[in-house]
Amino acid sequence: MTEGSDLPSSESRALTVIAQPEPANDNRPHRQTRRVAAFLTQVIANARQVPQTCEKRRAEPNEVIAAYRETMAKIQKLNSQAS
Fold it and tell me: In whole angstroms, how large is the CA radius of gyration of the chain?
């Protein structure tokens, strides 16, 4: 706006790209870093025999099958109620 006037000036103040931004010098693969960090955390926990990684490593097959069947029964029940 021009000084002393409530009207906007005729010049544009829109932001426009006048040059392409320079590429960042950061060539680190960020996703890969996260994966490596999670993997290293698991390796360290296993090496130190952290109780959670030892005690809760895997469920027995019969426990998994029972949990799967229970989940499927719940889903089927919900689907039948929705119909």
Answer: 30
Residues 10/17, Cβ–Cβ less than 8 Å = no
47-72 pLDDT, tens digit each? 888 876 555 567 788 999 999 999 99
- Contact status, residue 2 vs residue 9, Cβ threshold 8 Å: yes
Cα 55-57-61 angle, rounded to 5 deg: 110
* pTM score of the predicted model: 0.33
Q: CA distances (Å), 63 to each of 57, 67, 73, in order?
A: 13, 6, 15
